[in-house]
């Protein structure tokens, strides 16, 4: 199975340098739609409901302190054909969107909202956004 680093590396190969926020939201949507379309997770790394939207902490630690990400150590060859097709579809839908637009969109969607629970806007939160929550919500769209 691919890792979030493999997915991030592939996204960066396709789009070129992008902001850290945008990269985080795109890997989140790759995971969500893989659960729906491919009936499996794209990667096993945990996704948490942070204040600015879904974040993969492992990926965050790899790019912490960088606003624009040019490259991430990952192996895009670890992603199979179905995974790459899912990434392409996600990038076709979300790839041209502004990072803040993507963050705002996640704030309207049940997986992030439910994982945040009673946390107020701007509060720290490390609650996991589960595969089940993503599959249920995005599968209903």
- Distance linking N and C termini: 26 Å
- Radius of gyration, in angstroms, nearest whole number: 14 Å
Q: Please state the average pLDDT score.
A: 97
Number of helices: 7
Strand and helix order: HEHEEHEHHHH
Spatial sequence of strands, sheet with the most strands = 1-4
Please describe what this structure looks like.
The protein has 141 residues and is mostly helical. It has one domain (4-139). It has seven helices and four strands, in the order H-E-H-E-E-H-E-H-H-H-H. It has helices at 4-15, 20-37, 57-63, 81-94, 99-106, 110-116, 131-139; strands spanning 18-19, 48-50, 53-55, 68-69. A hairpin with a 2-residue loop joins strand 2 and strand 3. It is globular. The relative contact order is 0.23. The model has no long low-confidence stretch (mean pLDDT 97).
How is this structure best summarized?
This protein is mainly α and 141 residues long. The protein has one domain (4-139). It is built from seven helices and four strands.
